[in-house]
Design brief:
mainly alpha; about 280 residues; about 0% strand
């Protein structure tokens, strides 16, 4: 038992280092492509995906640190479950950013193929994407004794991700296809949806072995979460018409992340109480 207790923190730190390395690699690649003038990665919805995924990762990191030092979560199995979900959420955010860039680049080869070697670029992005997926699967497999893999439903796990990737593939891009403000808002909104909707559906599927958690109930938030979500969306929409200070825009993004990811990650009360009750039963 003591050996397992020592191994879990070690695995958590190892996974955190892998995720940090992937985030740094993505930021460096993205900044390099933007500086070289590779237009697709700076075009919505790809740019929107990058922005919303970044703030999702920031929110997960802040919440995890707060939980670590505050002892949030009364039982170790529940706390471990939230840590596992947090890792999966962060890895998915990294995965969807890599995929958004791959899709955007593949859709517009004429705008960048003379700037960067396509073979090297796709090999690099494809390799990092493969590492991200492998890390997600490895975490699930190594924790198969703690969580119920049989409870995972394809309609809540694989299907939303496939739909998100298809949406990125067929969605018109802004500003290359349309200069209108409406098109800009819609493409940014799609970037938010492909980041948060799959995570919101997938995370409640990861439950403790023997748990009787009702998956459907995990999909709804409290009045506070809805209020923060509406505030965040309102600030983002206002930013399309008037200048919003950077700090205000960043806080709005964190409000959105909290409202959508807080319950399944145990940072908000509703899901935390449900999980503790189920674990007690």
């Amino acid at each position: 038992m003591n050996v397992m207790a020592r191994d879990k923190p070690t695995g958590l730190w190892y996974n955190s280092v892998v995720m940090l390395a992937l985030v740094i690699a993505h930021v460096m690649i993205n900044r390099r492509l933007v500086s070289l003038g590779v237009a697709p990665v700076g075009t919505d919805p790809c740019d929107g995906v990058n922005a919303f995924a970044f703030f999702a990762i920031v929110f997960i990191a802040i919440g995890s640190i707060v939980r670590l030092f505050s002892g949030h979560g009364s039982s170790f199995p529940v706390r471990d479950l939230y840590s596992l979900r947090s890792q999966q959420a962060a890895l998915f955010a990294i995965f969807i950013t890599f995929m958004a860039e791959i899709i955007a680049l593949a859709r517009n080869p004429a705008t960048w193929i003379g700037i960067v070697s396509p073979t090297r670029l796709f090999a690099l992005l494809g390799g990092l994407t493969a590492v991200t997926v492998a890390a997600q699967l490895l975490i699930l497999v190594t924790q198969r004794n703690e969580i119920s893999l049989t409870s995972l439903r394809w309609t809540r796990t694989v299907v939303p991700i496939v739909v998100a990737l298809v949406a990125l593939t067929i969605c018109p891009e802004w500003p290359t296809d349309s200069p209108s403000r409406t098109a800009h808002i819609l493409t940014v909104a799609l970037g938010a949806l492909v980041v948060y909707v799959p995570m919101r559906l997938v995370l409640p599927e990861i439950v403790l072995s023997g748990s009787d958690v009702n998956h459907e109930k995990a999909a709804y938030g409290t009045a506070r979460e809805w209020a923060l979500l509406l505030i965040g969306i309102s600030v983002d929409l206002f930013g399309f018409f008037r200048h919003v200070p950077i700090l205000g825009a960043d806080i709005a993004q964190l409000f959105i992340a909290y409202a959508l990811l807080g319950p399944p990650l145990g940072f908000a009360g509703g899901m935390k109480n449900a999980m503790q009750t189920a674990h007690g039963n």
